[in-house]
Design a protein that fits this description.
- The complex is a heterodimer.
- In chain A, the strands form four sheets. Chain A has a seven-stranded mixed beta sheet with strand order 1-9-8-7-6-2-3, with helices on both faces. In chain A, strands 12-13-15-14 form a four-stranded antiparallel beta sheet, covered by helices on one side.
- Chain A has helices spanning 9-19, 49-61, 84-90, 93-96, 108-125, 137-152, 165-177, 194-200, 222-230, 252-255, 333-370, 395-404, 434-446, and strands at 129-130, 156-160, 181-185, 187-188, 191-192, 205-211, 236-240, 259-263, 279-283, 295-300, 306-311, 376-377, 386-390, 411-412, 423-427.
- The longest helix of chain A is centred in the C-terminal third of the chain and has 38 residues, at 333-370.
- In chain A, helix 6 packs parallel to helix 7.
- Chain A has 13 helices and 15 strands.
- Chain B is an alpha/beta fold.
- Chain B has helices at 9-12, 32-35, 53-64, 87-93, 96-99, 111-128, 140-157, 175-182, 200-206, 229-238, 259-262, 271-274, 332-368, 398-407, 435-454, 456-460, 473-478; strands spanning 132-134, 165-169, 186-190, 211-216, 242-245, 266-268, 289-291, 303-306, 312-315, 384-386, 414-415, 425-427.
- A seven-stranded mixed beta sheet of chain B has the order 1-7-6-5-4-2-3, with helices on both faces. A three-stranded antiparallel beta sheet of chain B has the order 10-12-11, covered by helices on one side.
- The chains are: A alpha/beta, B alpha/beta.
- At the A-B interface, helix 1, helix 2, helix 3, helix 4 and helix 5 of A face helix 3, helix 4, helix 5, helix 6 and helix 7 of B.
């Protein structure tokens, strides 16, 4: 007996009779003998809820959990406060057990919150259009880059080495598959080397990708990078931005950026060992019909009532399937809901306040940490909630000391940047208290 | 239930309201412009709503009431496998020791996470008869993409670069051709037989030294298991191509047959379908992939590996890897749900799930075939495709029927797919529906068939009692409004 399967023996008998077969096996006779499984799957047999929960709780406890230790680890995933109401709203089964809104009449709830999300993302980025989300920040860069080069028929994309290393790998995979080159540009003083960028961008370049704040936390000179990109005909500027930073930083749309993408995990989505997260993408109208992923549009129903539907699906796999601009099929519906609730709950004032608190706490941490001279700034560039310092000792050694004291330390950049030396990337969110920061600094100093 | 709620949050907003409270700043206060140069800061206020917390709750509760969901009733979307989402899955995914782990913590500090991924990958490979998994892809189509890139990397490593085509049956999922295009391939469409099977002679004519691979789902999109499946794989292999299994229909064959034994080289799973994780209104899903050993060197990095001492680590050292397809390691929260389900069901339960899914589909077919056209009248697998009403006199379309089903309190089946069936209506009940639900659902469809004859207008005008009635999709695509515009400004 299995709790998720309800048929009684009598049900089964009656159903087989109606179908006109003797047994369930008769329903599988069309599977050729030579490919039929004639033995059980080599898996354990069914377990009770009690046993399964005990086993999985054990696995969960095998992890060192930042829920019990303050964490200064960022590098693409951030420990922000998640307002309680988010789990209550995303936990409503009307949202989480529904499917892609193919029948708009009975999916207005999903469609409307996506529409609200699209609106909020455009207001945050200063762009005209946003879609219903992409898989994550990295695949958003990949999709954006493909959208640009397929649109302007150029040969390569130039990307800064200060973009998250994972995202650069994703972009390379996406571009290479269609025969485009990805050219990486070095950094200088912790930010993109603009002279190198200028040298790398040629007539063949279809897009320039900059992340700001970048992987090390430093704010890039997006305006100059955009000028360089636009110095070449038809070349698009793609900026990948922590959406939380956009509550205080100049909107990419105001600078002339063509595509804004990023990872919206900071908006009410747990770090959850790497996913699921939420990729966002915002563009101006000229890119509307090339924009990958789903889009929700407003319309009217038969009675003239305002309503919402999935729209512009001709870009997708439904029509001219082999010419689709992207194969993206799902969106991150439930995470879109979390981010939407986050943005609305924090609202006009809260979005700014949380971004300001992150900035002030990160700068306090930076000042305290670099005071004695033991830790040197990795860059003189301005930063938002994350920064990098150069240390004498290996980052791993420092992190072990911190762990002994009940703190999760920063990220050692050497893992992804060969020859960079001992560089620790440190994230300070609004959740870190002065006490935690002071303790972090003290242990780092003593290590 | 308030299904007439008609506000967007921007219309709820009132200047000065807040829905949050943060602790007072406990580090020394500073001017923002002293920390970040003024020219980098935004000089305008963010145009976001201002609402109190309970208004947020009320807004979204009202919106939720306008949704149909699986927990309310049968969701018979063919090809989407909307089975019950067990509640323990949710509890396990939200364990603090999973939800709060940072993906870049030291490997020794996330052994539970890595073990779960390793064991889930193993179980998935066993279910399909494959050797090596990756859990990185974010969705079914993303899994297709990953799988096709493995095939591409294989040919490229062998220097076999003239293989630039992927063969795809006309009955395939819409994402298959799009995936081939995303991976830089041209598509050859293969016509199906009138049984929805691969036309073996047509396949023989299509393959050649330009064939990179074949994408197939079996049972296929009309719910039929292909009797020539091994021969099909052989034909493609003999031509030097590889065979890709679209796992959308895996729910029909667990414990009964395995793609690996049929000759497939790489498969993707829709963990959000087959393994009972919720679809969340469109996602997140997970499109794990598994392949035969000879393709393992191309898997995306990192791969979770087990050391001799029994500990787990993330292996980035795969020189021939296709790279990465997304940041970090995959949709871990979805992986927890899928693994919970697999442990709960076990070998015996997974097999039983497939058996009952198939039984339920055939039962619905038997109940409805006197009223709806059955283009392929034979035993089906987990889903059944009808071709509109049986009565040739009715002017009622499949779309009208779908809209009328909404009035009866059910979600509609998948309509106009697969493309090879005229007026297609694809029903997939899954194993989790009771006989009583199936009887009631079938009775509603039978009623609709009668209404179509007696009062076709009732169907043409349907739905009547849903929150909105047939939104104008043409208008939405023509007068594009994809961000909120205040009506006062107009």
């Amino acid at each position: 007996m299995f709790p998720y399967i309800s048929l009684t023996e009598q049900d089964e008998r009656e159903m087989l009779e109606k179908i006109g077969v003797e047994s369930i096996d008769d329903l599988f006779r069309d599977i050729p003998e030579d490919v039929s499984m004639n033995r059980p799957l080599d898996l354990p047999k069914a377990k009770s809820e009690l046993e399964v929960a005990a086993y999985l709780r054990g696995l969960a406890e095998d992890n060192v959990c930042p829920c019990q230790m303050p964490s200064f680890l960022g590098a693409g995933a951030y420990d922000h406060y998640i307002p309680s109401i988010i789990k209550h709203i995303t936990g409503r089964t009307e949202f989480y057990t529904s499917y892609t809104p193919y029948q708009p009449e009975v999916s207005q709830g999903t469609l409307q919150y996506i529409f609200e999300y699209q609106t909020l993302i455009t207001r945050l980025t200063g762009m005209e259009i946003a879609n219903a989300s992409l898989y994550d920040g990295g695949s958003a860069i990949g999709e954006a880059a493909l959208m640009c080069v397929n649109g302007n028929k150029k040969k390569n994309v130039v990307i800064s080495k200060t973009v998250h290393p994972h995202s650069r790998m994703v972009a390379r995979t996406y571009l290479k598959a269609q025969g485009f080159d990805l050219i990486e540009v070095d950094m200088k003083d912790g930010v993109t080397d603009l002279d190198a960028l200028k040298a790398a961008v040629t007539e063949d370049t279809g897009a320039v990708v900059i992340q700001s704040p970048n992987f090390f936390g430093f704010i890039e000179n997006l305006e100059s990078a955009t000028e360089i990109a636009h110095g070449v005909k038809k070349c698009d500027m793609i900026a990948s931005c922590d959406p939380m930073s956009l509550a205080i930083l100049k909107k990419p749309g105001a600078i002339g950026v063509d595509v804004v993408v990023g990872e919206a995990q900071p908006f009410g989505i747990p770090v959850a060992a790497g996913g699921p997260y939420l990729g966002y993408i915002a563009v101006n109208k000229k890119h509307l019909r090339k924009l990958p992923g789903r889009i929700v549009g407003q319309t009217e129903d038969r009675d003239g009532k305002r309503s919402w539907v999935l729209t512009l699906s001709a870009r997708e796999q439904h029509i001219r399937r082999e010419k689709a601009t992207s194969n993206i099929c799902s969106n991150q519906g439930l995470n879109v809901l979390a981010a939407t609730v986050y943005m609305i709950t924090m609202g006009k004032k809260g979005m700014r306040e949380v971004a300001e608190q992150c900035t002030k706490k990160a700068h306090y941490c930076f000042n305290e940490l670099t005071k004695s001279g033991k830790f040197k700034p990795f860059s003189s560039a301005p930063f938002f909630k994350e920064f990098a310092v150069v240390t004498d000792k290996p980052v791993e050694e420092l992190n072990n000391k911190l762990k002994e004291a009940g703190i999760i330390g920063g990220f050692g950049a050497a893992k992804f940047y060969e020859g960079i030396g001992n560089v620790m990337i440190i994230a300070v969110t609004e959740k870190r208290t002065k006490e935690e920061i002071d303790k972090f600094v003290k242990i780092m100093e003593e290590a | 239930m308030n299904t007439n709620y008609d506000k967007v949050i921007f219309e709820v907003s009132q200047p000065g309201r807040v829905g949050y409270k943060l602790p007072d700043l406990d580090v020394p206060e500073a001017e923002l412009s002293d920390l970040i140069p003024q020219d980098l800061l935004c000089d305008t206020e963010l145009d976001f709503p201002e609402v109190a917390e309970f208004e947020v709750i009320r807004h979204f509760t009202n919106l939720s009431n306008k949704n149909y969901s699986l927990d309310q009733g049968i969701y018979p979307l063919g090809s989407c496998t909307m089975k019950y989402n067990p509640k323990i899955n949710e509890d396990m995914a939200s364990l603090p020791g999973f939800q709060n782990v940072h993906p870049l913590q030291a490997e020794e500090d996330m052994q539970g996470v890595l073990r779960l991924m390793y064991e889930l990958g193993d179980a998935l490979a066993i279910i399909t008869g494959m050797d090596k998994p990756t859990l990185q892809p974010a969705a079914g189509a993303h899994g297709e993409y990953t799988g096709i890139l493995l095939i591409k990397a294989y040919h490229e490593k062998r220097g076999d670069t003239k293989r630039d085509k992927i063969i795809i049956p006309d009955a395939a999922h819409g994402t298959n051709p799009a995936t081939a295009a995303m991976a830089g391939y041209k598509t050859i469409e293969l016509k199906s037989t009138n049984q929805g099977m691969v036309d073996v002679e047509a396949l023989r004519a299509a393959v050649g030294d330009d064939t990179a691979g074949l994408m197939l789902t079996n049972p296929n999109t009309v719910g039929m298991s292909d009797e020539n499946i091994k021969l099909i794989a052989d034909i493609v292999h003999e031509a030097g191509g590889l065979v890709y299994y679209d796992g959308a229909n895996l729910n029909a064959i667990m414990g009964k047959a395995r793609p690996g034994d049929m000759g497939f080289d790489v498969v993707h799973y829709n963990l959000h379908k087959t393994m009972s994780t919720p679809h969340g209104g469109g996602g997140p899903g997970s499109g794990a992939v598994a392949c035969k050993e000879f393709l393992a060197e191309f898997l995306p990095v990192p791969v979770v590996e087990k050391k001799d001492d029994g500990t787990f680590y993330l292996n980035y050292d795969l020189p021939n890897s296709i790279g990465k397809v997304k940041d970090f390691y995959g949709h871990f929260g979805i992986l927890v749900r899928a693994y919970t389900y697999i442990l709960t069901m076990g070998a015996d339960g997974l097999k039983r799930a497939s058996e009952v899914a198939v039984l339920n589909a055939n039962y619905l077919q038997a109940l409805l075939k006197d009223y709806y056209k059955l283009p392929l009248d034979r035993i089906t697998k987990h889903e059944v495709v009808f071709g509109g009403l049986k009565d040739p006199l009715s002017e009622v379309t499949t779309l009208d029927i779908a809209k009328r089903i909404l009035d009866k309190g059910y979600h509609a089946p998948t309509v106009y797919f697969p493309l090879i069936i005229n007026e297609a209506m694809m029903v997939e009940p899954t194993e989790t529906e009771t006989k009583q639900t199936l009887d009631a659902f079938a009775n509603s469809l039978i009623e609709i068939a009668k209404e179509a004859k007696e009062n076709p207008e009732l169907l043409k005008e349907a739905p009547h009692n849903t929150p909105v009635r047939r939104p104008d999709e043409t208008k939405a695509a023509k007068d594009v409004i994809v961000v909120y515009q205040s009506t006062e400004e107009e």
